[in-house]
Amino acid sequence: MRTEQDVMPVPGVEVTATTTARTQGGNAVVSPEQRETERPQLTHWVVLIGAATFATTMSQTGILRLPFQNLLKSELSVSREGMASFFALTALAWYFKPLAGIVTDSVPLFGTRRRHYLMLSAFCAAAFYFISGIASHNYGGLLILLIAANAMLVIGSTVAGALTVEAGQRYGATGRLTSAMYVVANGCALVGGPLGGFLAARAFGFTVGTCALFSLSIVPFAWCFVREPAAKQNGSETWAKAKAQFSWLIRSRTMWTATGLLFFVYIAPGFATPLYYLQTDTLKLSQQFIGTLILLGGLFGIAGSFLYAFLCSKFTLRLLLYLSVAASALGSLGYLFYHSAAAATLVESENGLIAAFVTLALMDLAARATPRGSEGLGFALMMSVLNIAQSLSDVFGSWLMDQHHVTFFKLVWLNTGTTALVLFAIPLLPAALIERRDTTPS
Predict the structure, then answer these.
(1) Which residue(s) pair with 372 in the sheet?
(2) Domain containing residue 195: CATH number
(3) Which of 86, 118, 241, 382 is in the most buried spot, having the most CB atoms within 10 Å?
């Protein structure tokens, strides 16, 4: 097993001593003087990554989920399984995120590989959202337009992920940078919960208009912050680079081991959609109160992000993976007591904290395992596996309830047991990835 992280040889790119220098965990070493000189530039990219994360997260149907759920349930009268399938299909493009990674890493758009992808994807996503307001009473038309809008968001998200991996590996700060990224994402959940509850009680046009405006918010940041040297659009060189990326990625044992762990953590039978029906049909919770629960989950998720950012520099990733997976399994048992509004408040708060911690541990692992020179493609591949597993998990859980009459609380036990099994897979991960803390060496 290799003790260094895979580094992809990119055609036409000179490899210098700086780019090949590595620490034990595979991160590029920069001198204290160079790190101090480049610190303002790193802050510059942190702001850009945060803005891109906000734009591509806040405009997703998964964040402003309540008005879409309300439309499907109240006006289109879809079943639990139908609703879960709808959200799984709207996220279809996220399953093919590696294709966006290949394109953005290898094929320049109007002479750039980052700037114009961010801007054009935002404009296209906004256009699809505006049009979807017209098709809101047609299940098929609405589904197709939201799939297209998400496809555009995938491109922007892929660019943001690539920038996060590049900076994280360079500064030995993958845990802290992914924590910062996750703080923004949970900040979106803080706003998205109550905002979704507010929009669910109003005309659907307000929802799609809001999504469009959020997607466009990255445009001024991309225009002002991203300055790239002109990229040559040599067709043969472009496709040679794309082929080299894909070939190197396929052979990366480190990355595929990490990807397998991500998949098995999130494939456990889920209950996101069944929980919504429990909240509305059994507990009779209002849309506004459900939005408040999402707000609390996001607030505690931010707390979990800061906690991980602190602990990742104190303990090895191995220990944090064990703690996060065990906590995720045990935390799911809280849903066995989901019998009242008060219980829902406590459980959702606890789940927000734990979910943030386990997600960040896995994202840290993904960022460390991504081969250099293939940041967009590698990180996108692992995130798409995560998205596929999450969607299949929700559909599987809804199917068990609708078709096999498995109760919600039996589903909770099943989720807990399958998540706990992942603890036995952690020893299979390469030691070079997980036997170090998130600390840039001096």
Answers:
(1) 7
(2) 1.20.1250.20
(3) 118
